[in-house]
Amino acid sequence: MQLSFLAQTLTQTLTQTLTHQLRLKPHTWKWVSSLLLGSIIAIAGSLRVPGIALSRLTIRIGPIAQTIELADLEDFAQTGAVPPRLRLYSTFLTPQVRQVLQKQLSIDPEISDRVVDDILQSANGELLLDTLSTIAPDLSVDQLRAAIRLAAVSTDGLSVLGILRALPQESLEVDASAAIALISQLNLSRLESQALSGVLDYELTSTESAFQANFDPAAPGPYDFEQWELRLRDRDRDRIVPVDIYWSEQNNGPLVVLSHGFGADRRFLAYVAKHLASYGLTVVAIEHPGSNVSALSATELDPRASREPSRILPATEFIDRPKDVSFVLDQLARLNQYSFALRGKLNTRQVTLIGHSLGGYTGLALAGARLDIQALKRSCSNLIPVGLSPADWLQCAAVDLPRQTYDLSDERIQQVVAMNPITGDLFGSQGLSQVTVPTLILTSTNDGVTPTIKQQLRPFSQLAGSKYLVAVIGGTHLSVGDPDNINPALQQIPFMPELQGEETQHVRQFLQGLLLSFVKQETPEAALYSPFLSAAYAQSESTPDLPIRFGTELPSSLTSWLRLTGSWSGKSRSSTRLFASLIHLEAIQVNNRLVRLQHHVFAYLRLSYPPLIVLDWPLEHPPQS
Q1: What are the structural domains of the chain?
Q2: Between 40 and 325, where is the model more confident?
Q3: CA atoms within 13 A on the CB side of 601
Q4: Handedness of CA 455, 434, 534, 566 (dihedral sign)
């Protein structure tokens, strides 16, 4: 009786609070009662960390508290039946939740301490602990570490329930408001991404007839090529830059430079390099020594990194990366003159740069985008990692740069491809308007690392020159990477599952043809390849699971939506802002469905036989001729 009363009181309190905050009708929040337990199970499952104490958990919101017994959750995990005291939350206790509670991980006891330390002392582990301190303020880091270590060496293996049993206290109090806020933000972000996917899918769909071509630019080219490895020393910066050069005897176009993302290496886009080289293009894949996989592995773990990202990514990398490219081009220009084998094959005066993630930033900076440290510092003030994407957090490493004007442009960069780029607030509101060279932006709508809206769509709208947008609907951050050359650690970021290599094979196949066609626009064969820079070609390479869309401008509906969301103040995207953004996107989708229905009706009327109308004229009043 007391439990039901508390549950009812909690429901009323949350309903009133959320209704007042979001100004929604109370019946919208009928599910709040199940969200109380849901917040805890989601934390235990989605975050893979404890949300319940040794024997019971106290969920508190304001002066109201409710207790849940651990034994009830154990019964549910073992039998699948919802205990009577948890029936209020039965809609949330799904088979998936049960699977999370049952899942066990066996770890060799001799290395369990090392494994646990590696996890908790990593940047993601520190972020996880920081999140927990907000949700469960009474749970100390030492208690959590001890519980995980104890659960890891148990005979049952490491599991959520095992960690809960190992906590050295009888009860744990959880701030339900903080938990609900976090989960709501994560869920709203996911819903916003899904809504945006639907809008991009519809708005960028081509109405042209099926694409036809006389040849396939994604097929391997006719030329054999060599792959050379060089290590170029920049004495002025005391920096060694490794490069791979892919070249053939039949060189016939601009030089292509590849720039990898944070924590990757120069082989991340190896399949692209090989494909372009097979068509006679010389490709140079650069490895940035301050932000490659080796630099990330050698970084000392620091608990302060969650609020000071420059402890993970040095601020100087935002300057050194573009300088790496300019330095390499200087060295290649000399090789083009004096190397017997490479003479005349390194067209350093005409360069297309293809970059991924932080490599996308590198390309845009070289193309003329201006860093705006002052704007970035405003965005990154009072940095709280919880709720931020990795890109929003990582960009703040640059705030440690001196506040001055940075011109990193290089006039040799004639075209840029930025795939899943990190841009955010790095260039402020005007910096990207300085980019006037042809630019292709690729976005993946399920990219949790560099989210589509802030990192790609908004920057795309600011570009001043000719531009192309490619949207992989449902794609993730690493969908464009070479599956044989992806750092495994990059595929294990919490809350951000990555599609596996075979799932994105057609995306990489499409990119081979698209990137070749884009590079060829700087050659006499531009007209031959221009049809492949089209929505029809993108759709011809799509699948139902991962549609690909192409455009040269943002649809007007998305432009107005970007203006709306950009007008909101504040650096963080609160639940209220996310909810309003979601509603706006849903309204666009409703309008699109109505337009589609209207088109279907008109098409039906055009194809239907006209109705036979019989006019019954009175005999005494015949129609006048």
Answers
A1: 2-176 (no CATH), 204-553 (3.40.50.1820)
A2: 325
A3: 6
A4: positive
